[in-house]
Amino acid sequence: MADRPRALANGDLDLGNGTVVLARDIQLRTSTPGGPGGQHANRTMSRVVVTLDVAHADSFNDDVRRRLLAVLGPTVSASSSSSRSQTQNRRLAQDHLAHRLADALHEDPKRRATRPTKAAVVRRLEGKRRRASIKSDRRFRDEE
């Protein structure tokens, strides 16, 4: 199983499948978190928005870029304002962005058609016969 996507200490995002988004491709913006919280919320720049321009990022090869553009579009962003700490919100927003990118890159394996086993066919038909018998017993029978 692939590693979990996560933000690294140097600002890079490890998507867990061998793909790393470099910190220079990620843009960070801060703002006041909004909502209730009084003077602290009005003055601190603790909300963090991380944005990745998929179309122009140097971190991806053509196949990865094509997949991300198809699934997520040209820009991807994530934000966090759940903590009073800007550092913690930055880490949370980067983790959220890494998860979104990793989920977009995940492909389920191709399914192969298989035939049911003989035992499975016998069980299925026996169940159908049992059910038909139960239903036929419910029918009104003319007394002879």
Outline the structure in words.
With 144 residues, this protein is of the alpha+beta class. The protein has a domain at 6-105: Double Stranded RNA Binding Domain. Helix content is 40%, strand content 17%. It has helices at 38-43, 62-72, 86-105, 118-138, and strands at residues 6-7, 13-14, 20-21, 26-31, 47-53, 75-80. The longest helix has 21 residues, at 118-138. The chain is elongated, with a radius of gyration of 27 Å. The protein starts with 5 loop residues before the first strand and ends in a 6-residue tail after the last helix. The model has no long low-confidence stretch (mean pLDDT 87).
Largest sheet: 3 strands, antiparallel
Low-confidence stretches: none
Helical region count? 4
What fraction, in percent, of the residue positions are helical? Answer: 40-55%
What strand line-up does the widest sheet have? 1-2-3
Q: Give the N-to-C terminal Cα separation.
A: 68 Å
Give, in order, the helices and strands: EEEEHEHEHH
Shape: elongated
Give the structural class: alpha+beta
Strand proportion, as a percent range, falls in: 15-25%
Radius of gyration: 27 Å
Averaging pLDDT over every residue, what do you get? 87
Broad CATH class of one domain:
Alpha Beta
The number of distinct β-strands equals 6
What is the CATH topology descriptor of one domain?
A: Double Stranded RNA Binding Domain
CATH architecture annotation of one domain? 2-Layer Sandwich
